[in-house]
Amino acid sequence: MLEAEYTELPAKTARPGEIECLGLAFENEQQRRDYFLDRLGEKLADPEFRQIEGFPVGSTEAILALSDPPYYTACPNPFIAAFVRHYCQSYNPEEPGVMEPYGGDFSSSNRHPVYSFHPYHTKVPPEVIRALIEHYTKPGDLILDGFCGTGMTGVAAREAGRNALIVDLSPVASFISGVNCQSQDGRQALWVFEEIIAAAEQKWGYLYQTEEALQKLSVNYYVWSDIFTCPACDYEFPFFPHGVIHHSNKVETLKSFPCPSCLAPLTVRRIARVVVQEKKQKALVWVNVGKGRERINRLPNEYDLKLAAHLEKIEPLAWYPRDAVNPAGYSAQLAQLGDKAITTVSRFLSHRNLIVFSDLWERVSRIEDVALRNLCRATLTSIFTVISERQGYFGGGGGMSGNLYMPIVRMEKNIYATLRRKLARLKEAERAKENLPTRVLVSNQSTTQLSAIPSATIDYIYTDPPFGANIIYSEVNLMLEAWLQVKTNQEAEAVIDTTRQRNFESYATLLRDCFQEYFRVLKPGHWMTVEFHNATARVWNLLQTAIGESGFVVAGVGVVDKGSTTILADIRPGAVKSDLLISAYKPVAASAEGFRLETGTEQEVWDFVGRYLQQLPLLPKLQPSKEPAEVMVERMGYLLFDRMVAFQVQRGATVPLSAAQFYDELPRRFCLREGMYFLPAQALAYDRYHLAPTTQERTSSD
Q1: Fewest CB within a 10 Å sphere: which of 166, 242, 404, 523?
Q2: Of 393, 427, 461, which residue is a domain's last?
Q3: CA-to-CA distance for 4 and 78, rounded, in angstroms?
Q4: What is the structure's pLDDT at 36?
Q5: Which parts of the chain have pLDDT scores under 50?
Q6: Does 563 lie in the same domain as 471?
Q7: Number of separate helices (H) and strands (E) present in the chain
């Protein structure tokens, strides 16, 4: 269906000064865009084209406004077949392939400038993916990622001198990928954006002004607190300062505190949020003013309070989305959005920041060059969380990743100041993409249907599929996709979500369909790496079955530490912090025997953990000391769980224990010291060394 019209475009050699794209020559980038936009418009007029699995929810106008074809389309990319034929190197069964899986684990930072440019719920640093690409492929090879997120596989492929085809169901993810995987003139973008910010601030900058000692100063941020009622006396009060300890630039919630009126003992769970006329009530409680050493933290003054009251009478002059938030959705229930009167996406912004953000969005949307327009839009979406009602007042960072949680006490940041700081990140990201000759094509669709990719044309697959019920991407992405006016098609979303009757079986079916497509398009004898992370044994077993039943053979499993976790992974009992990298290959000849997953037992698990602990050194540095011992992370519970899962996956056996069950049983079977687990004899040795006198003490006693 997709191949029919654009499988082979008429070739034309580019002359000096012209640009080449998929074998065609154009005078400039705009001529290239116009040509492919016309072709894309023709496809969008075809009802059959819109039946492709995962086709996003959006109008033809909205899709065309975002798209920069052929390299990025905000819908299934109709130029996939042409891209593959242009960059694919024919399969040669006589050519020796990679025989061994990548050996070892990864520990990576998150400092890559493109990685750092735009936040997303889950990302893998490109240096991890690049190492895998360079191990499994050669320059010029074609890489595929069917769950690309913000495009780190594309970034890694370009840096490694490979071409890539990347796909995601989410319009905002594929939009960010389109920006991250194309090189732009960073200097021009900075100049344009600075002009836009200056013009916008001239109109609305007074919304962030205050008066201090008869001088007008700029506010860096305001702090707002939700208002609650005491169940004993019905007294209304802001949670800040009564329910918190206020440090210099953050708050710490008290476990219990007295009602400021009747002194009844209260907790967060005992008080009720005040909602009037379908809006939660809040109070301005703190203001941060000035620059550098002259910054002032203080209570709001009369000027601040009058401005806040005046704001409520101003309506945004620019367009903004009014999409409804489903209070029955899994993410909305988790964040209690119904109780907080968050009924539309516009309420993720304060009224002040809605006025300013919508004005900036409208100004950026007038930029004629689509690549520059998308880069500026992506810069705006990159700051959305930190300038939204999800930005807590806790001393830095953005909202909690992967959910819609809105804190009781939160910051309202100056958008103009935040944007100017972001421009430095934009400059670094664009500089990192300069002079990269290879290409990435981005498609917004489901990986369950990759019919546009001919069979046995892909050299390597890196994939990071959704982790079961960990994150419901369509729900947490709605706040940005509403601004793009192109939203996720939830029917093809591979998640476990009881609110939509998406159970383990439907998740398993979608995963299997994706891996079957992976198997079809991958060249025989070539490799796929699956990155995965889940605390539930059943989800792991579903993944193993999907990989095996598709025809892949698992040959190795490693651990990757991405250098950062979600907040929930840090605090939730039974969570896991590291991902596993599963290395699997497509056999040259299909096995006559069907895939069968062996049944793993709990006894096998604990036998493995015992053997693994036995092989580990006692400590990284085994020196007598009374100082706290250096922690050996390999002995910590979360990494022992990772090793156990890796052991089961590599030998083709089910995972019999969830992370919660595993963590619960660990201290019953092994000795716990300083967060590390030991065999009994090892624990005794650890205690002896830990309690031994230091070298200095022994010298003094002599």
Answers
A1: 242
A2: 427
A3: 9
A4: 98
A5: 1-8, 565-575, 622-629, 695-702
A6: yes
A7: 25, 28
